């Protein structure tokens, strides 16, 4: 029997300054060539476990380590991170911070240079690895000019250039659009076929892990279950209990009581045909008619935000928006989607006057944004930035949330009342005296939303409200947003999470290369799979499955209500 | 948003070897400090301006124009307190001290401009390589270049953060300088926190790719001195030589200037 590539024994670790172990009693072995996916909710210890493998724990993060990690025969205790780097490559979630060179080729050269590889050999490795990840044409480009997906591919190539035996990726696709995600997973798919490379990937998006050999589920620092991927993915109830997103397709077939549970859209279509079920046209038409009615009622109003031939050039001449016409009506809940760098955020920043058009016009409540200025518009249109850490600066939640109302000169009692009210709305009652910096990401996100809500804007723009949150946190964040919408706020959110769009948006705007590429109700937009693909987007598997059946159904419950016939 | 310091043009200045550019910087530094009289400094100033135009680095100076203006204005005034002369103008200002202040301002501006030209035309790695080839240890060179690398990161963070606060109604565009500074202060908290987070990941990424794994290290980047480099260096030598000779011969001083 050969030695396992990674052998983790009774591993526990506690970060310095914390009271509880981040991971506890982990036992896990990976054979050479294996592909394991590590899943779990936020704070489960996934990243901690991942960084144990190349020695960042215990060498970079100081703390108390028990048990041991042996990778390729090297005990991480006795080898520095740099020494481990020859055997273990690590790719991080943040694709900005892990790149530091001024050109693509130098980025790749950095690793081999540290191990005194000869110049000819480095040149060869640059060629090979750029070709491998499909960045061959970008050799001389500065990494800062690449798209998010390309940056992440570069990060992978730069790590592969060290010819490691183990590749660990910590949520490599979290910040990427669906097609960039698929690009990364296409690379992972090829890497997995290499028998000399062991892959360990931390991921929380369920559809992406279908190709793994095994899945390990982690919760509260402990391994809950380890097993073959296809077996574990079928256990949708376990996923839901753990706060992970279950596969929609499995959910549906389980709920309808099918004997076998398909995993992919193709498998699902086969299973569907075999069972003899049909979609009831009557139910489906009623569903669509109801949506059409809602659409008519909403668009009969005066638009709240109106863009006409909107153009925007960044200083230096880059055209970010090119002739956008759109209307957003009061009380609506709309999603803006598109590839990384397509202009989504640039567009949204026009709605509150943060950016002013260089051509065409944007009106809010009938007046152009130029006329109103950001200070007055800020009262009307609240904008929650993607990263709450860019926004929060106060020592207590109370100070943070009261910042806006105070700036606007409200009396102190009114300020207090508003803070209490908004904290309640975001589900953070009684946290007034807490330090926002010590809260979890989702907590900080909520504080950021509360701080914007406290000025009582009519419109709320949320830039990537669910990024970096786990499924359960995403759900509760979006339920809160839906509640705000039901109480009368107009909601505009930007997102990469297609299931969030499917579940919560009424209307969708698809932006591609600075133009409005597609618009319609969520159902209409998701029925245009081909066009979405051109805009680097892809509906969730479940919707792809129903599209294959000829109708677009957004969630398992909808299909359940429309299914007739068969033996069920 | 583009906030890189390096400006990706292909000018003759960009094509110079990093070592040459570092030496040109040093030459101007020495040359500028040898003269007190602004008239004698004019050739140096013109030389710097010519380099600025050839290298097309004006954009980076434009970015720090506010700092440059404040610095120049205070320099023209403040040096008068540290120098005196024989021909009084008013209060502490004399003709000689005024001339001296103007020349000190020229010196500061020349050196800042040369620094800006150096980092606008030289890639980070080339700068490290140049410094290493001139005898600096690799880690020291890397540390210097890392601090330069931080500038665009912090600048773009500051940009996003000020946008986030302006959306919340913080008015950063009105009021006098003191009031504006006061409003900017709270922004520094998120700027520092996100910079520290970034730096943390940067450190991890460095180590994960074997930074400092061994004592020896290879360099992929190749650097060659061309004939242009040698011509520029010869010119620098002549410039510094002539400047020193003129200085020793007593030229370029301001008669009647006393410094405190």
User: Between the first and last Cα atoms of chain A, what is the distance in angstroms?
Assistant: 49 Å
- As a percent range, the share of helical residues of chain B equals 55-70%
Tally of contiguous helical segments of chain A: 23
Q: What is the number of domains of chain B?
A: 1
Give the fraction of residues assigned to helices of chain A.
Answer: 40-55%
Note the beta-strand portion of chain B. Answer: under 5%
Q: Output the strand order for the largest sheet of chain A.
A: 6-7-8-3-9-10
Per CATH, the class of the largest domain in chain A reads Alpha Beta
- Mean pLDDT across every amino acid position of chain A: 92
- What structural category characterises the helix and strand content of chain B? mainly alpha
Oligomer: heterodimer
The CATH topology annotation of the largest domain in chain A reads as: Rossmann fold
Summarize the structure.
The complex is a heterodimer of chains A (568) and B (260). With 568 residues, chain A is of the alpha/beta class. Chain A is built from 23 helices and 22 strands.
Descriptive account of the structure:
- The complex is a heterodimer of chains A (568) and B (260).
- Chain A is of the alpha/beta class.
- Chain A folds into two domains: 6-214, 3-Layer(aba) Sandwich (Rossmann fold), CATH 3.40.50.300; 304-530, Rossmann fold (3-Layer(aba) Sandwich), CATH 3.40.50.
- Chain A has a six-stranded mixed beta sheet with strand order 6-7-8-3-9-10, sandwiched between helices.
- In chain A, β1 and β2 form a beta hairpin.
- The two termini of chain A are 49 Å apart.
- Chain B has one domain.
- The longest helix of chain B is centred in the middle third of the chain and has 30 residues, at 138-167.
- In chain B, the strands form two sheets. Chain B has a two-stranded antiparallel ribbon.
- Chain B is built from eleven helices and four strands.
- In chain B, α3 runs parallel beside α6, α7 packs antiparallel against α8 and α8 packs antiparallel against α10.
- Chain B is mostly helical and 260 residues long.
- Chain B is flat and about 65 Å long.
- Chains A and B meet through α3, β6, α4, α5 and α14 of A and α8 and α10 of B.
């Amino acid at each position: 029997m050969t030695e396992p590539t990674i052998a983790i024994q009774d591993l526990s670790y506690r970060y310095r300054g914390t009271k509880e172990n981040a991971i506890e009693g982990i036992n896990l072995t990976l054979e050479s060539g294996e592909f394991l996916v590590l899943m779990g909710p936020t704070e489960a210890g996934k990243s901690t476990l991942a960084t144990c493998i190349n020695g960042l724990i215990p060498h970079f993060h100081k703390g108390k380590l028990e048990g041991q990690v042996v990778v390729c025969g090297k005990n991480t205790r006795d080898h520095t991170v740099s020494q481990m780097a020859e055997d273990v490559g690590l790719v991080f979630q943040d694709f900005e911070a892990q790149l530091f060179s001024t050109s693509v080729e130098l980025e790749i050269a950095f690793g081999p240079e540290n191990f005194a590889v000869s110049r000819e050999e480095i040149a060869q490795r640059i060629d090979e690895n750029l070709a491998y990840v499909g960045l061959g044409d970008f050799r001389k480009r500065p990494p800062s000019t690449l798209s998010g997906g390309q940056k992440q591919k570069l990060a992978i190539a730069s790590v592969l250039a060290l010819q490691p035996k183990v590749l660990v990726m910590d949520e490599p696709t979290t910040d990427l659009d669906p097609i960039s995600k698929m690009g990364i997973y296409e690379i992972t798919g090829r890497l997995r076929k290499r028998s000399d490379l062991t892959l360990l990937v931390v991921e929380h998006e369920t559809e992406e892990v279908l190709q793994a050999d095994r899945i390990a589920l982690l919760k509260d620092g402990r391994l809950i279950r380890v097993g073959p991927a296809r077996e574990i993915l079928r256990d949708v109830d376990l996923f839901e209990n753990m706060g992970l997103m279950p596969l929609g397709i499995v959910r549906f077939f389980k709920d309808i009581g099918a004997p076998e549970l398909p995993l992919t859209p193709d498998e699902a279509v086969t299973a569907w045909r075999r069972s003899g079920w049909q979609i009831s046209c009557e139910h489906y038409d009623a569903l669509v008619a109801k949506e059409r009615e809602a659409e008519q009622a909403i668009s009969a109003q005066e638009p709240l935000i109106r863009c006409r031939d909107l153009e925007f050039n960044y200083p230096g001449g880059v055209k970010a928006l090119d002739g956008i016409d759109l209307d957003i009506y009061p009380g609506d809940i709309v999603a803006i989607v598109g590839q990384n760098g397509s202009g989504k955020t640039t567009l949204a920043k026009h709605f509150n006057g943060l950016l002013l058009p260089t051509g065409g016009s944007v009106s809010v409540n009938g007046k152009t944004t130029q006329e109103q200025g950001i200070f007055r518009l800020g009262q009307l249109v609240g904008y929650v930035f993607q990263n709450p850490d860019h926004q929060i600066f106060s020592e207590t939640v109370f100070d943070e949330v009261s910042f806006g109302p105070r700036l606007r000169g409200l009396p102190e009692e009114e300020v207090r009342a508003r803070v209490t009210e908004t904290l309640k709305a975001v589900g953070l009652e009684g946290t007034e005296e807490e330090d926002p910096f010590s809260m979890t990401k989702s907590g900080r996100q909520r504080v950021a939303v509360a701080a914007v809500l406290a000025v009582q804007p009519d419109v709320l723009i949320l830039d990537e409200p669910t990024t970096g949150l786990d499924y359960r946190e995403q759900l509760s964040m979006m339920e809160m947003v839906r509640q705000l919408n039901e109480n009368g706020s107009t909601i505009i959110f930007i997102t990469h999470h297609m299931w969030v769009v499917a579940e919560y948006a009424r209307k969708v705007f698809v932006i591609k290369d600075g133009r409005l590429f597609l618009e319609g109700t969520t159902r209409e937009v998701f029925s245009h799979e081909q066009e979405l693909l051109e805009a680097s987007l892809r509906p969730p598997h479940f919707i792809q499955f129903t599209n294959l059946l000829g109708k677009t159904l957004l969630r398992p419950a909808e299909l359940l209500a429309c299914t007739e016939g068969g033996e069920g | 948003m583009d906030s890189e310091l390096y400006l990706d043009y292909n000018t003759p200045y960009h094509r110079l070897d990093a070592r040459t550019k570092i030496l040109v910087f040093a030459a101007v530094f020495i040359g500028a400090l040898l003269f007190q009289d602004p008239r004698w400094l004019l050739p140096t100033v013109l030389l710097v301006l010519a380099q600025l135009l050839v290298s097309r680095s004006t954009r980076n100076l434009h970015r720090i124009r506010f700092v440059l203006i404040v610095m120049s204005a205070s320099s023209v005034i403040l040096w008068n307190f540290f120098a005196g002369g024989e021909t009084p103008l008013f209060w502490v200002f004399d003709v000689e001290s005024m001339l001296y202040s103007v020349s000190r301002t020229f010196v500061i501006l020349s050196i800042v401009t040369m620094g800006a030209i150096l980092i606008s035309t030289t890639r980070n790695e080339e700068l490290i390589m140049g410094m290493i080839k001139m005898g600096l240890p690799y880690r020291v060179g890397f540390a210097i270049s890392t601090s330069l690398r931080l500038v665009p990161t912090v600048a773009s963070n500051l940009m996003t953060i000020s946008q986030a606060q302006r959306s919340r109604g913080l008015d950063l565009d009105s009021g006098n300088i003191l009031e504006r500074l006061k409003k900017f202060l709270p922004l520094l908290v998120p700027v520092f926190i996100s910079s520290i987070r970034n730096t943390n990941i940067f450190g991890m990424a460095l180590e994960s790719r074997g930074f400092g794994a061994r004592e020896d290290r290879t360099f992929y980047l190749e650097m060659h001195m061309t004939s242009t480099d040698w011509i520029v260096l010869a010119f620098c030598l002549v410039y510094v030589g002539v400047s020193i000779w003129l200085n020793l011969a007593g030229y370029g001083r301001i008669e009647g200037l006393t410094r405190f």
